[in-house]
């Protein structure tokens, strides 16, 4: 009875209000909008709310921290000491780390330690990468689940299964960025056994199966080594290698870009006797024609572009290689010989060259966007 009286009084009040002003009651009631769901597959989509979130984070960052997002040194037996990485982290000079040769426990401990420091220092979380290719992962990260080498994989189903096994280990460690699959042809002995190209017909379907499974498990996959390392005669670890004439391995990249691969690694390979893509004696990593004009514009790749290791013989002796690689359109500078000097070089140009500043801004925003889509930033 009390409930009915209350309803009667409310009705009288409503009628009184109607006498004073017109109340419009909508024909339909809008459902509340669901919260925006962002995941790794969101990276390539046009999502204004995501763009706005990236901008809001970027606008609060110092110049030092912005440039730092583009630099990724390595830690481990073939990288820097843990304390060196901690010093770079403390000064906001890096945005990620390559875990290069250690045990599974060591790699897990590094991720935990660095992320605890990032929280303390107010830094963005890191991208943690690894060369977790089927042919290398069990040697690079000791204690990971054994998998067959890439050139022993027999079909796309097995490629996906191997990717699932590797990605499960990476998830347990905290690695979110895999520099795999290798899409080079098998002729070059440096990279041949690391890819699926015993039969060239396998390159695209096996690579697609591998990368899609990786990204389903919240691991960024990387197609490498652009524009093709399989037909050069030598080793880019030791010296600059050359593609003489046509880019015969370029055809493997458009299908992988169409499949949604989120990262591509550029090799330290020069191109000569090619009217459209001559790099004038410089490696592709420092050539705007190769990185920006071909990969970014012509092939319409929208993901992260990472250099091969910048301490390799194919690029290490080139003056101002760090800023040249960023100016060319690379987003992430992997393993510079001296991360602190590389940061100083890029920061100086960022603060004095407006066009270069725009390039750095685009790269930093792509990296921030990827960190949001990985779930690293709430």
Count of alpha/pi helices: 13
Helix percentage: 40-55%
What is the total tally of β strands?
13
Percentage of β-strand residues: 5-15%
What is the CATH top level name? Alpha Beta
Q: SSE order, as H and E?
A: HHHEEHEEHEHEHEHEEHEEHEHEHH
Low-confidence stretches: 1-29
User: What is the residue-mean pLDDT, rounded to a whole number?
Assistant: 92
Can you tell me the CATH topology?
A: TIM Barrel
Strand order of the largest sheet: 2-3-5-7-8-10-12
Work out the count of structural domains: 1
Q: What structural class do you assign from the helix and strand content? A: alpha/beta
Rg calc: 25 Å
Q: What is the rounded distance between the termini?
A: 49 Å
Characterize the main sheet: 7 strands, parallel
Question: Architecture in CATH?
Answer: Alpha-Beta Barrel
Would you write up a description of this structure?
This protein is an alpha/beta fold. It has one domain (63-371): Glycoside hydrolase, family 3, N-terminal domain (TIM Barrel, Alpha-Beta Barrel), CATH 3.20.20.300. The chain has helices at residues 2-20, 48-58, 63-68, 82-90, 104-121, 137-140, 156-173, 203-216, 253-259, 288-298, 321-328, 339-350, 354-373, and strands spanning 71-72, 74-75, 96-99, 102-103, 127-130, 141-142, 177-178, 220-226, 241-244, 263-266, 269-272, 304-307, 333-334. α2 (48-58) packs across α13 (354-373), α7 (156-173) packs parallel to α8 (203-216) and α8 (203-216) packs parallel to α9. The chain starts with a helix and ends in a 5-residue tail after the last helix.
């Amino acid at each position: 009875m009390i409930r009915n009286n209350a309803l009667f009084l409310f009705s009288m009040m409503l009628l009184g209000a109607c006498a004073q002003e017109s109340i419009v009651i909508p024909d339909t009631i809008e459902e509340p909008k669901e919260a925006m769901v962002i995941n790794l597959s969101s990276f390539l989509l046009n999502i204004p709310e995501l763009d706005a979130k990236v901008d809001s984070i970027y606008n609060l960052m110092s110049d030092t921290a912005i440039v730092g997002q583009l630099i990724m040194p390595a830690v481990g037996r073939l990288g820097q000491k843990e304390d060196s990485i901690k010093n770079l982290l403390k000064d906001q000079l890096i945005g990620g780390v390559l875990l290069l040769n250690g045990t599974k426990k060591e790699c897990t401990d590094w991720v935990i330690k660095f992320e605890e420091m990032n929280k303390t220092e107010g830094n963005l979380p890191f991208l943690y990468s690894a060369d977790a290719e089927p042919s290398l992962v069990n040697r690079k990260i000791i204690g990971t689940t054994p998998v067959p080498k890439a050139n022993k994989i027999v079909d796309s189903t097995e490629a996906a299964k191997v990717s699932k096994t590797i990605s499960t280990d990476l998830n347990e460690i905290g690695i979110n960025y895999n520099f795999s699959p290798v899409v080079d042809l098998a002729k070059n002995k440096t990279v041949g056994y690391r890819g699926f190209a015993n039969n060239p017909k396998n390159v695209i379907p096996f690579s697609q199966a591998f990368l899609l499974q990786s990204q389903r498990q919240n691991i960024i996959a990387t197609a490498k080594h652009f524009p093709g390392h399989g037909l050069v005669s030598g080793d880019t670890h030791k010296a600059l290698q050359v593609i003489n004439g046509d880019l015969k391995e370029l055809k493997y990249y458009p299908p992988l870009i169409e499949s949604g691969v989120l990262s591509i690694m550029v090799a330290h390979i020069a191109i000569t006797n090619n009217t459209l893509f001559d790099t004038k004696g410089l490696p592709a990593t420092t050539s705007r024609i190769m990185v920006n004009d071909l990969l970014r514009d012509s092939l319409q790749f929208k993901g992260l572009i990472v250099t091969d290791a910048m301490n390799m013989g194919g690029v290490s002796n080139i003056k101002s290689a760090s800023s040249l690689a960023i100016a060319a359109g690379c987003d992430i500078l992997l393993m510079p010989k001296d991360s602190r000097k590389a940061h100083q070089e890029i920061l100086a140009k960022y603060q004095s060259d407006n066009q270069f500043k725009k390039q750095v801004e685009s790269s930093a925003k792509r990296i921030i966007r990827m960190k949001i889509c990985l779930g690293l930033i709430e």
